[in-house]
Design a protein that fits this description.
Layout (H helix, E strand, L loop, with lengths): L3 H23 L2 H18 L10 H21 L22 H19 L3 H11 L5 H8 L3 H19 L2
Helix pairs in contact: 1-2, 1-3, 2-3, 4-7, 5-7, 6-7
Amino acid sequence: MGDRTAFRTLYGRTSAKLFGVCLRVLDDRALAEEALQEAYAKIWTRAGQYRVNGYSPMTWLITLARNTAVDRRRARDAGGRRRTSPIDAADLIADPAPGAAQQAEARGEARALHLCMSELPPERAEMVRRAYLDGATYAELADATGTKLNTVRTWLRRSLMQLRECLSR
């Protein structure tokens, strides 16, 4: 709805986590910062497209940030950096460091995720890491493992459902 105060609040509460997603995919701080800026520009313009469908708003934000970072990684790996247009709303975005409470919450979430990942079969956990943290595509995973593409999709979908169930306990 164009509420700048709400956007600042959203940024303050989610930027550390989304930056971590971008940094994990790109493994380059400068590119991750650019991807994060682009992701928040998309969030600003596409917020009205979010629909409650059983997934949390954070899942939508993480997916948007991850996809933005993956696009940048692909552009980088293809030999050129994609040019982005300047963002008028960029001056809205401050980069406050996460406070102690946010850091403690992030550590607790990381421990919970690590525990849930350990419940997956090792090859599935590795596939989830490569797909959702390193930005590997389903096709790349299928080629790397010698598994059919649809099987990779099924394994990842089931693994994510298992993780979601585990994390909701």
